[in-house]
Design goal:
The chain is mainly α. It is 77% helix and 4% strand.
Length: 180
């Protein structure tokens, strides 16, 4: 899943950069005519509206990019914590093994009664349980974030933009005028 998220992040970043450069270029271009001819069709051009639409597009792509970057960050954090916990577990098990060897050494004056409780096992088990709870909380947060990101980016925004295109297509120009 991390690779797919990373690929989406790269694609979104590329789109964001292209839209940003396009907006900057149009904003800094001196357009002398208010018309353009494409395939024999004459189109009226308003540079301010094109720049405003570019700003709106960049804002939308920036929102998606930030959401995807946060999701990728949570996944990477989860992976790093898992690796850290594995190292911690390996070190603690080695320490317990050393303690066990030391207390069962027949040459030692202070031998541990085989029936006595072993506090190092209890401490290890308690810490392991705390770490497992933290890992589960992080996994739950990651799953919840992934669900919310999917809901917002893939469905809600698409439905919202499609609804505007169907029912009020001129609303986009009104939204773009906010950025003028």
């Amino acid at each position: 899943m991390l690779i797919a998220e990373y690929e989406n992040l790269i694609k979104t970043r590329r789109s964001l950069l292209i839209a940003s450069f396009f907006t900057i270029i149009i904003a800094n271009t001196d357009i002398r005519s208010d018309e353009a001819s494409i395939f024999g069709l004459r189109l009226a051009i308003d540079q301010a509206q094109i720049v405003s639409l570019g700003k709106l597009t960049v804002s939308f792509l920036l929102f998606i990019f930030v959401m995807q970057a946060l999701g990728t960050g949570v996944l990477k954090l989860n992976d790093q914590i898992s690796k850290f916990d594995e190292r911690w577990d390996k070190i603690r098990k080695q320490e317990i093994k050393e303690i066990e060897i030391e207390i069962h050494n027949p040459n030692e004056e202070h031998r541990w009664d085989s029936e006595a409780p072993r506090p190092w096992y209890d401490d290890y088990a308690k810490e392991r349980e705390r770490r497992e709870r933290r890992r589960k909380r992080l996994n739950l947060a990651s799953i919840s974030y992934d669900f919310m990101m999917t809901l917002v980016i893939q469905y809600s925004i698409s439905i919202f933009i499609a609804s505007i295109a169907i029912f009020r297509p001129s609303l986009i120009i009104n939204l773009a005028s906010i950025y003028e």
